[in-house]
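Components:
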Amino acid sequence: MKKKTMTFQDLIMGLQKYWAGKGCLLAQPYDIEVGAGTFHPLTFLRSLDKKPWNAAFVQPSRRPTDGRYADNPLRAQHYYQYQVILKPAPADVQALYLESLESLGIDLKKHDFRFVEDDWESPTLGASGLGWEVWLDSLEVTQFTYFQQVGGIELEVIPCEITYGLERIAMFIQGQYDFYKLKWDDTHTYGDIHRNDEIECSKYNFEVSDPKIHMELFTLYEKEAKRLLAEKLLVPAYEFMLKTSHAFNMMDARGAVSTTERPTYIARVRNLAKSCAALYLENTDNK
Amino acid sequence: MKEKKNTQRDLLLEIGCEELPAGYIPPAKDQLRANIESGLKDARIGFGRITSYATPVRLIVLAEGISSRQESQREKISGPSKAAAFDKDGKPTPACLGFLKSKGAEIRDIKIENTPKGEYLFIERAMESLPVKKVLADILPKAIGSLKFPKVMKWPEAGGVKFARPIRYVLALLGDETIGFKFGSLSSSDFIRMPRYESAVMGPVRIRSVKDYFLKLKKFGIEPDGEKRKDRILSLLKASAKAEGASGEFNTALLDTVSYLSESPSGFTGKFSKDYLDLPVEVLESSMAKNQKIFLLKDAKGRALPAFVGVLNGKRKDISGICSTFEAILNAKLKDSMFFLKEDLKTRLEDRIDLLKGVVFQAKLGTMYDRVGRLRELSRYIADALKLPDDEKKKIEMAVLLCKTDLVTQMVKEFPDLQGIVGREYAVRTGEDRDVAKAIYEHYLPKGPNDPLPAGNVSCVLAIADKIDAIVGFYSIGMIPTGSEDPYGIRRASLGLLKILSERKYPVSLDGLIDKASELYGNTIACDRKAVRSQILAFQRERLKNILLDKNYKDDIIDSVLSPGIGRFDRLGKKLDDLSSISQAKYFLEAAKVVERVSNILKGAKDFKENDLKVRTELFKEQLENELWDIYGKSREKIEEKIRSGDYAAATKLYAEAFSGPIHLFFEKVVVNADDQALRFNRLSLMKCIYAVYVDGAADLSKIKLQ
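Structure:
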């Protein structure tokens, strides 16, 4: 009997099962627009303290400038990450990761896989780490990072963040190098689910959105975040920080941010992220 | 096993890491060898040949013929003075006993020696000669811990140590024995891990001896020697090139990287659609190198062929699946680039100039459009100074207009590193003049310390304008390179600017360029322009000195020439050459002596203002004053004439002949610093005239180190 193709949803279920089996808490996606799973408070905030923390979750991620009107087989303004955060990073974390690929039916003996150096940095989150991009037959499928700094704070207990590009892995498994032709389940393609959104959102991000509104929103969100920080309301403040980050990305997609204003905006988001990190630690210490 | 005494054994160390960045590995490998070598020497352990190897996950050192014990050596330890060590009855004091106790010595070991400070206690004895294994357990962790990497990290099991990536095991063998030690919280052991192509999770393999180690490497097909891997890749490339009818030219930077991305390189040839051959070669090569680390095959004329070579980690029986994935990814990536190319070529570069209004150069310094406006004026200024013919001037005008237009192409947005290259390509494709197209690329040169300089006047003029505009702009708003930080590339621009100017020896001065650039910024910048100018000049002088030292000019000659101001670069070169060639001549040394004496007396007169330059002959009191003034009057014109015509050797000779005798006589007989203030100032003014007539236009020879 011919082996059934692993669909997009099979892939997610496979990873959920694998990582739950390794003792991860299966969390749910965060409900505010984020550029990556790292922005999820269960990654960002929980990386800061010394307590062990292992979690895994799907995170829909938005990168407005990456929109291609569904024309590009490899890029989109909305895609899915599968994020695993392990603290402290286990000594055999590379093997754990590779076994997860094998659990999805990828025979690593038949492929060329590499850990290609990548010094990851998120200037908006004041976060950085060392690690790799993982390449499967030259397709980048995962970002693998040992966090060193988060929210401007040097970490004492080092976590490892594994971020799978779900569409990329599905492409590799299905041998189908176009996002939109991927099988989501046995009857629907990825395109059935997301092609229209992608076209509409690309049009909105690049042509229709009003950068002035996003600029005003940025300022309002920032103000609110600062007010909430003063009130020591961590999660609400953190959420407004996330909103500033998205507002910035929206301005950026319209080309409304010059290369030189860019660092200033990024620094403004980073300052909020740093304050949130500091507040989180303050709260944790007081508990 | 019985330990064989006095037999030499081989030492083997393998540091097993998670994948190290390719660029970190060769230097780390060399450092590790050097660290172990010096560790062995310091510990007086004999050894033969030391070799180091490395793969992406292993740093390896083999030290052959390690002797079994430390060489014996006597040591001499100094103690307290005799007076402090014994009381008046000749009994040892607590200080003496304490010293002996701390060194584990007895009173009979003491020797007393006479030193310049008086009589002191010494102990002389044979140093402990420890078995080598014990000493190695100390040397090896230190050798590992002192490796330097551009970036290091912590990881949970590190136990406080940092490294480029986590270390997961350390194999340390002396012959067939494990050398036990700890690095951080990691203990050395007797196993290594398999290569990933053999076992994805790198299962452990026990190693019984140094000999067994190399057998195991062989068994797994690991090639530990990076140079050999590189050779192997090169022959793979050549074989593929031959089969495809391609030339033997490959991306050499990528070759260096790829030899440290695989423990056992094997290769395959893949194809891509001919449709993509329309992309500029650089775009193809950049995309391939950046996204997939694969090699483009090119024909003998450097044109792209629709084929590439991929290098794998380990051999595979069936590579068809791997190859088709590589091809699919490449085609998807090139499709993106092709889309950019087609879109880009719909708009001529000329018609993109207005779009530069939307690209900010720097928030406080305006847009790229503003910048191009300034570059046009600066280029005109430089071209005029160079007296360039009209056809070159026309080309420069065109090159200036086009030089930044590729910044608003989709291709450069995708591959920012290809700025200039894309512009040049598009210019060629739309039929622009060759020199113009070349200048679009070359005005960015040199980008690094080993980069070639722009060739030809069109490129050079534009390169100078581009750099001085950036330097003056960033300095004016206080964004100045500090320490090793150079976020805006200003240090790099300075170095490039000075290299071009000193190489081409153009008749322009930095002062002139800075003032012109500063003027062109107009009201955009509000700063103390004079202060900015001297700040820039001071910075440039430092860089220039280094450049000239590299060209083998003598330190003191450089200082003497740069000290009065850098001046025009055509003259600067001539001054350095002239003065270097006469630096042994008698008249040169005489001239230097004159400048030195005059300069010293001027330096000593703190209250003397340089604008009191006028010499009033009616204040002369001594005959020698009149005589010196006469000599000055007679020789001044001649010296200045030689300086103007750029004959610095002749100017120096005239100067020495005129003043060498008289000035020494003057100093002998006349007191310059007279009590009468007016008289003193007048004499100082006379000195200043003699100083300035040579130094202002030629060189401050007081900087010359006279033997």
